[in-house]
Design brief:
mainly alpha, single chain, 419 residues, 18 helices, two-stranded antiparallel sheet
């Protein structure tokens, strides 16, 4: 068995990141569009807040359950084929979500979206890590901006389409475009060859779990990632409803406000964090983790401010600052992990990290939805700030106690021709 490294021509090398950007855009848009039209689904199908939270939690749990299989697939099969397979399945499931008639069909179809989407990130991030070795942080930051753009556009378009044509039309549109994009990838990926140059023995499906737990730094990074995902899933699921109910914003205004300010500033933060970390990491091996530490720690107060804000101006300020520091953290999620992980099992290990993080994050929508009638969304969202502080503590522990040892072991074990 072999792993992949790519020396594709420079022209398609950057076409590749554009194509992956588009795929990741719809990966996130198809996730978030459900949250945007949540009030419409609730009214049409007469669902309770806890049932809506359950659907969102099942979606995240599906990602967590299937992502180890996805990581294994990303290491043993051609990554480009895994990406196309993932895109086509989640887009088809998104399209058919529009025919849902109740709780059961929504749970089934959204779990299908989540499980098929789980195959994208491990393969795509490993492929980027192999292809853009010298510009790894910046290339991953460019790719990460698709997450923010996808969420912003789903917030705007999803709300507008939902208000004018009904919530079902949003799923038909996003799912249909995704299917067309999968066809485009089939055509364009013919120009992209994944060259094999690092031999290794056949992988066990447990390689990702073993690889992660062999490195204390990877464990701590996974715990920190879980804290971030917990906050992110809770925020994405309930903030549109929070603004709609607390400040009487229309559905489209709440969808725009909740997604735009946060993700525009996250867009700036992730590009800044990626570029700065690539520069600093040349002299300081711990620079990527330090950037992540400060991103979480400085972002926490603004999450608290978001939940407790008494006017929209303060809400927008909190969303922007929270987003900027979230982007600083996001810029090195996988670049930090890859610093201590053998390149041959990167897809498997990153999938394992995603699995644990999303299992943790899956509790957030249901927890906030269950507490909403008594505690209220304001206090629930403010409480999410604790998770960011906890995540910063985990990264701080890695910086102080484990990173230097893990990096030395990793760097001495890699083949000489790997950067």
């Amino acid at each position: 068995m072999t792993t992949t490294a790519n020396n594709t021509s420079g022209k398609f090398k950057w076409e590749l990141i554009i194509l992956l950007w588009l795929v990741f855009f719809f990966n996130q848009a198809d996730r978030q569009v459900f949250n945007i039209v949540l009030p419409l689904i609730k009214a049409d199908l007469r669902l309770s807040d806890s049932q809506l939270g359950l659907i969102a939690s099942v979606f995240i749990a599906a990602v967590g359950v299937f992502v180890p299989i996805a990581g294994y697939a990303g290491d043993v099969f051609r990554k480009k084929k895994v990406i196309i397979f993932s895109l086509f399945l989640w887009s088809a499931a998104t399209f058919f979500t529009g025919i849902s008639t109740g709780l059961l069909t929504l749970v089934i179809l959204r779990s299908m979206v989540g499980s098929s989407e789980s195959f994208y990130a491990p393969a795509a991030n490993a492929l980027i890590g192999d292809t853009y070795r010298e510009e790894r942080g910046f290339a991953m930051s460019i790719h990460q901006t698709a997450l923010y753009a996808g969420i912003i556009m789903s917030g705007v378009l999803g709300a507008i389409i939902g208000e004018h044509y009904g919530w079902r039309a949003t799923f038909y549109l996003f799912g249909g475009i995704g299917i067309l994009l999968a066809i485009l990838l089939i055509v364009r990926f013919r120009h992209f060859s994944e060259h094999t140059d690092i031999p290794l023995s056949p992988l066990s499906w447990l390689a990702g779990i073993r690889g992660l737990f062999a490195k204390p730094t990877a464990i701590l990074l996974t715990l920190a990632f879980g804290c971030m995902v917990f906050v992110n899933v809770g925020y994405l699921t309930w903030t549109p409803t929070f603004l709609h109910e607390k400040f009487n914003q229309s559905l489209s205004a709440a969808g725009f406000s909740s997604m735009f300010y946060h993700h525009v500033f996250a867009f700036a933060g992730v590009l800044a964090g990626g570029k700065i970390s690539d520069h600093l990491a040349k002299k300081d091996p711990s620079a990527r983790l330090k950037i992540q530490f400060w991103g979480l720690l400085l972002g926490a107060p603004f999450i608290y401010m978001l939940g407790t804000a008494g006017n929209l101006l303060l809400v927008f300020l909190s969303l922007g600052c929270f987003g900027f520091f979230r982007g600083i953290y996001d810029s090195n999620i996988y670049a930090s992990l890859y610093a201590v992980i053998d390149p041959r099992i990167r897809a498997s290990v990153s999938a394992t990290m995603i699995m644990f993080a999303f299992i943790i994050g899956a509790f957030a929508p249901y927890l906030l939805g269950s507490l909403k009638p008594t505690l209220g969304l304001s206090k629930g969202i403010a409480f999410l700030s604790v998770a960011y502080i906890l995540g910063a503590i985990f990264i701080g522990l890695a910086l102080k106690f484990t990173l230097a040892k893990d990096q030395v072991r990793e760097l001495t074990s890699l083949p000489e021709n790997y950067n």
